[in-house]
Amino acid sequence: MKKSELNLNVLVNSYNTLKDCYKDFAEESNSKIKGYIKDSCIQRFGYTYESAKKIMSKFLKKEYDKTEKDLTINNIFREMYGLGLIKNFEHWVDYREKRNTTSHEYNDQWTYPIIEVIPQFIVDIEFLINSLNGVLQDD
User: Fold this and answer.
1) Packing angle between helix 31-64 and helix 9-27, nearest 10 degrees?
2) According to CATH, what is the number of the domain 6-135?
3) Sequence ranges of the domains in the chain
4) Rounded to an integer, what is the distance from CA 35 to the centroid of its chain?
5) 4-37 tens-digit pLDDT
6) pTM of the entire structure?
């Protein structure tokens, strides 16, 4: 597959904003400002996850002729794991569960588990981007 057929820019940009936001969160000492940054991190986690999921689905459709029926969310993660394009299937299942939590209601009770997975999520997104760049051909 050619790089032009699978534009990673949205994923790379969302990854970069999440990474920068989380760095600010980790470095902030003012609890009120830290709370605002945490909210932003959770929002960025959500849209970075969605971007990654869409890129994975599009990749599998174009490169392996997978259909919507083939690509349940867990099957997307299984396929990508089997191809070595993500490191850990269970992490991605956990990210999906945490993402689903963010879309239903907002309260401090569930924000802590989400903010705690963001460092590993950043590592996993970087691995995904590098893996896809490795298999995509230049035009």
Assistant:
1) 160
2) 1.20.120.330
3) 6-135
4) 22
5) 689 999 999 999 999 999 999 999 999 999 999 9
6) 0.92
